[in-house]
Amino acid sequence: MIPVGFAYERPSSVDGALALLAEHGEEASVMAGGHSLLPVMKLRLAAPELIIDISKLSELSYVKVDGDEVAIGSGTKHRTVEASEVLAAEAPLLAAVARTVGDPQVRHRGTIGGSLAHADPASDLPAAVLALGGTVVLRSPRGTRSVPITEFYTGVFSSVKEPDELIVEIRVPRTGGAGWAYEKFTRRANDWAVVGVAVVDGRVGLVNMGQTPLRATATEEALAAGASIADAAALADQGTEPPEDLAGTREYRRHLARVLTKRALTTAAGG
Amino acid sequence: MSIMGTRVRRVEDPVFLTRGATYTDDLTDERLSGALHLTFVRSPMAHARITSVDATAAREAPGVVAVITAEEMDLEPTKHFPAVPDAMARPWLAKDVVRFVGEPVAAVLTEQAYQGEDAAELVEVDYDPLPVVTTLKQAATDETLLFPEAGTNFAVPSFGNDDFSDDLFEGCEVVVTREIVNQRVAAAPLETRGAAAAWGEDGRVTLFLSTQNAQQSKGEVAGWLGVDPAQVHVITPDVGGGFGAKIGADPEFALVAWAARHVKRPVRWNESRSENMTGMLQGRAQLQTITIGGNRDGKVLAYRLDVLADAGAYPRIGTALPTFTRMMAGGVYDIPKVETRARVLVTNTTSTGAYRGAGRPEATAAIERAFDLFAAEIGMDVAEVRKRNVPPPDAFPFTNKGGAQYDTGEYAKAIDTVLEAGGYQALRAEQKARRERGDVMQLGIGLSCFVEITAGGMAAEDATVEVHADGTVTVLTGTSPHGQGHATAWAMLASEKLGIPVEKITVKHGDTDLIPKGVGTMGSRSLQSGGVAVYNAAGELADLAKQRAAELLEASVDDLEVAEGEVRVAGTGTGITLAQLAEKDQLRVETHWDQQLPTFPFGAHLAVVELDTESGKAVVEKIITIDDAGTILNPLLAEGQRHGGIAQGIAQALLEEVVYDADGNPLTATFADYGIPSAAELPSFTLLTMETPTHLNPIGAKGIGEAGTIGATPAVQSAVCDAVAHLGIRHIDMPATPLRVWEAINAAQNGTATTNGSDA
């Protein structure tokens, strides 16, 4: 439970962090809260040569309304997202989902950008941002680009983020008036979701139902076509190939996706 | 006023909550200065032939002082349970064959702890895989042998009836049988295992060990090293949980001591959580076939328990525990005919040992399941069928069919008390209403009634009490705690007799030079053995003080009383303090106490779960318990024991299971995968009070450390099964995870369930 030796840098600015990333690329790992990175390092499943600690970069910590969207700095801690009045009014789903991450200690260290960058399909926040139709803003010395979350993930623990890029911001549409719900199914309070379903404004994001966070497109289309919640929810697992582990078989996860989608849609509809 | 029975706060806690305890890994003892750190290279294979071990690169790694492989070890492989075949001896470091994932293959000694993990990675071990045995049924076929020279996977000859009688169930109107699993669980103490060794110039070794019993550890390690026990000094610092898995010494301890002698430097070892989850003894691991027969009026006439128990790769204390299961098979019930058998097998898994209850929870879980199945078959209420089969209070002492003599018990009263407190009839009405409405959230009600054996087989302890000239008191005990609160409780017992406040009483334990004799803390034995010894020693000290004071005060001993740390002439203002007496002459008493017989605490648990029939998830809403452990010395400590026990019981019923894949890889080697509970998974417990004293010791106390676990597990499992009983399900194995419950519901709805319920 002791990591392989590594170098450590704590740049004082985003530009400093980007310069280090540009120099070290894949040999470096960016650390914010460290709650995903450090365990895999301690188990020696990851051995970065350099840790770039961005946890003190206050320029990455903010939540603000920006036009039709809410802009959230990637270094914003889950606890801040959870308690944000801006998000409570403009994207309450995100605040509610952040509240289900880990425990208070985890939420006081972990960040939204770290969670999205880690690209774990069992994480809550990526599916929530997916349901919200959000955008990931990436920066590198080469410039800044915005990637719709629908195009961000490429597989388990992988995304289109290049080794020299840093997630600097997450943008989600203002959905204050829309119905929303998050159903997270766990064995224990602190566990990762066996399956999770985030619903907002008729869009459905699925946690732990495949290689990446997924949208339940069949359900969304059925809803748009006027189907009942029960009928639409029955399609939630369509096209998914969820993982199998001790917590769930593929069949069980598909079943849970249907059940949880029905519940989330019912809640979102005010039921 | 007597201090007995009062809620004295734990004297241990101020330090634990501020500076923190001093565990083995925290020690800054000067004897350990300059100590090397030992890191094990452990097998990643469950069963394989070792074709080569190459430590060349590791020996050249930074900070490495030595790498020890089987080649360097001069200690012979040792059996860790006497009755097993010699071929089942465990090598200290694997030489030719590894038999479980986590078996030590080499040990790296480094100046710094972190260097050890780097160097361990450089030890190259080539393995040639062998067929793996992970299940009991697979082991019982003897097709693949762990120890070919032994000729069998059976660790010991079968305990009990080798051939069952044909007519056991003759005359029964109803007979129900089924196979049930009492799954393997991990003790998972928050302090993992640790040891440190320093050899002195006098040829003695000082061993700092995280153990539940220093004195036993001393004997074991001395035997393993082949040295005179007088040459071994064991010191037990604070111990952060044991749950049975820290009884005695672990093989790694001997290796630490051997390595320290080998390199002539102090050596310390503290394992990681990952190591702990494969290296430490695990518990339960029984496959049981239960058969129960009786009449439709609810009278049970015969019961048979057939156990296959998993010893793991190298048989240790777990080999013996099924004998407790057999002894307690009949539970609280007066059953005319009981037959039991237990067979213990080796498999390519971590060795098993004691885990909170150690053999008795397995008995209780089996008989309580059997009663539920029987009740369901005859269509009788589970409480009613239990009450029709328990012995009445005037039947005690009651000898069960396993030969155990229950000292005292009021089983029907315990059942009635939890039913009444839980509002049993109202719960049943609510359950009926939900079933009629077809609610998604169904109610399950589970009842268990249990009796267990405490201080079984080893009820003797010594104690020393000394009053010093400054008025303080030192208590020496052979029962060393690992979280129970002995420092508080033993001080209370001395205080009761001496009238000296607990703040002035220091309880010392876990140092074999200071306290050469002791059995330790396990099997819910401490209060009735070590505690009573302290109580008696303090009483004898009070008598001694009265004799000495009689001369000084020119009074008759009969007129003297000891109160508030003083010997007084009753009814006068005359007296002399114990401190003054100690100033004149050493005031110290050492005594021996042997209770001779075990005691039998009992109780009843009523669990209520709410079960989501769509997801299969059960949540415990209420648990109402009676854990009657005789007279309670300190309700605060007793409640703490019950809380922890109930939590572990609920966890076994719903969450915890050590799982191996078919290749013997552990799938639950981290806390992310292994289901230890948190407060969020547990309800507030309703603890009812019932105290039926034992006559076997002067304070009337029985043991309470394991009761909660024993009662809660079957109650919660039963509640889960009950929540889905109306769907045609009679049994779901533990842990009743959402997945397993959902599969049972599915099977029932698809008509694939067996006649005895589901095969989930």
SSE inventory with pairings:
The complex is a heterodimer of chains A (271) and B (760).
Chain A: E1 7-9, H1 14-24, E2 28-31, H2 37-42, E3 50-53, E4 63-66, E5 69-73, H3 78-83, H4 85-90, H5 92-98, H6 104-107, H7 112-118, H8 124-132, E6 135-140, E7 143-148, E8 153-155, E9 158-159, E10 166-173, E11 180-185, E12 195-200, E13 203-207, E14 214-215, H9 217-224, H10 229-233, H11 250-268
Helix pairs in contact in A: 5-8
Chain B: H1 13-17, E1 36-42, E2 48-54, H2 56-59, E3 64-69, E4 97-98, E5 104-110, H3 113-122, E6 124-129, H4 136-140, E7 159-160, E8 174-186, E9 194-199, E10 205-209, H5 214-225, E11 232-235, H6 251-263, E12 267-270, H7 273-279, E13 282-294, E14 300-312, H8 322-327, E15 337-346, H9 360-378, H10 382-387, E16 398-399, E17 405-406, H11 411-422, H12 424-437, E18 441-451, E19 460-467, E20 473-477, H13 486-498, E21 505-508, H14 526-553, E22 560-563, E23 566-569, E24 575-577, H15 578-584, E25 587-594, E26 602-612, E27 618-628, H16 635-654, E28 685-688, H17 707-723, H18 738-749
Parallel strand pairs in B: 1-12, 10-11, 14-15, 20-21, 27-28
Antiparallel strand pairs in B: 1-5, 2-4, 2-6, 3-5, 7-15, 8-13, 9-10, 9-12, 13-14, 16-17, 18-26, 19-20, 19-25, 22-23, 23-24, 26-27
Helix pairs in contact in B: 5-6, 9-17, 13-14, 16-17
Walk me through what this model shows.
The complex is a heterodimer of chains A (271) and B (760). Chain A has 11 helices and 14 strands. Chain A has 271 residues and is α+β, with helices and mostly antiparallel strands. Chain A starts with 6 loop residues before the first strand and ends with a helix. Chain B has 4 domains: 109 residues, Aldehyde oxidase/xanthine dehydrogenase, molybdopterin binding domain (Aldehyde Oxidoreductase, domain 4), CATH 3.30.365.10; 97 residues, Aldehyde Oxidoreductase, domain 3, CATH 3.90.1170; 325 residues, Aldehyde Oxidoreductase, domain 4; 139 residues, Aldehyde Oxidoreductase, domain 4, CATH 3.30.365.10. Chains A and B meet through helix 11 of A and helix 3 and helix 18 of B.
